[in-house]
Amino acid sequence: MTATRTTGARANQQALQRAIREYILDERLSSGVPMPPEQVLMERFGVSRHPLREAMKALEAVGIVDIRHGSGTFVGIGSLTALREGLEFRAALSLNGDLLAARELLQVRRLLESGLAGEVLARRDELDMPALRSAVSRMERAAADGDYEASADWTFHRLLYEPIGNGLILELLEVFWSVFHRLDDRLPQGSATPEVIAGWHADILAAIDAADRDHMARAVAAHFDGISQRLG
Question: Which PANTHER family match (predicted)?
Fold first, then answer.
C-alpha cells in the first residue's frame, strides 16, 4: 500500500512539473519574467502549497524556473546542470568497467569541436589572439614546473568558439570539458604530460596564425587522439 501511494505521489508530482512547463510555453513567458503568485498557481493546477513548492524546486534544478528568495519565482533559461551531472556520473561509472561511456562522450566532443574548426578559421579576425596566446603561455609555464593549468585550458577552448556567437555550443563544450576535467585524476596519464597538453594547444594556435585549414584539422585531431589514448 505504501509503495502504491509513493508511486502515485511521484506520478502526480511529475504531472505537475509537466503542467507548469506547458503553462510557461503556452503563455509564451520569456526568460526572466516573474511567475504568477503561489496562490494563483495553486488554484490553476488544483494543488496545495507543498506539492507546488516541491515541483518548483525540481524545475529550478534544471533551470526552468529561477527562485529568488525575497523576490519571487521567475522563468529560467534552461540550465544544462542536470546534463552535466548525469554525464559525469555515467562516465565515472564507466571508469569502473570498460570505459565505454567515457569514450562515447569523448567522441561526441571530438565531433563537435572538429566540425567547428572551419568556423573558427572563418572568424579568425574576431578571435582574441593575445588572450589565446596568454592561455597557451600559462599552460607552458605551468608545464615547465610539471603542472597542468586547467583554467588556461578551458579559457583557450572558450575563446576559440566565442566568436561563433552560439551560447548553446559554449555551454555544451563547457559540460564536456568539465566532465573530463573532474575525471582527470582517475584516468591513466599515458603520454599526456602537462608539456604535451600545452603542445597540443600551441599547435592549434599555430594553425590559426597560419590560417591553415589542413594544419588546423591535424592539430585538433592530435589533441583528441591524445585524450583518446588515455581511455585505451
Answer: TRANSCRIPTIONAL REGULATOR, GNTR FAMILY (PTHR43537), UXU OPERON TRANSCRIPTIONAL REGULATOR (PTHR43537:SF5)
Instruction: Give the structural domain span for 131.
Output: 81-230
- As for how many domains the chain has, the answer is 2
199 touches 142 (CB < 8 A): no
Read off the amino acid at residue 66.
D
pTM across the whole model: 0.71
Residue pair 84/90 in contact (Cβ under 8 Å)? The answer is no
How far is it, in rounded angstroms, from Cα 27 to Cα 23? 6
- The residue type found at 59 is L
> What φ, ψ does residue 190 adopt, rounded to 5°?
60, -135
Which residue in the block uniquely carries the three cell numbers 512547463? Answer: 21
Q: Alpha-carbon distance 91 to 100, whole Å?
A: 8
Q: How far apart are CA 221 and CA 117, in angstroms?
A: 10
| DSSP summary character for residue 70 | T
Q: Which residues of the chain have pLDDT under 50?
A: 1
Q: Say whether both 173 and 188 belong to one domain.
A: yes
Answer yes or no: do 123 and 63 share one domain.
no
- Looking at the fold, whether 63 and 98 belong to one and the same domain comes out as no
Give the CA dihedral 44, 50, 54, 55, nearest 10 degrees.
-10
Residue 1 is predicted with a pLDDT of 43
172 vs 82: CA distance, rounded Å: 12
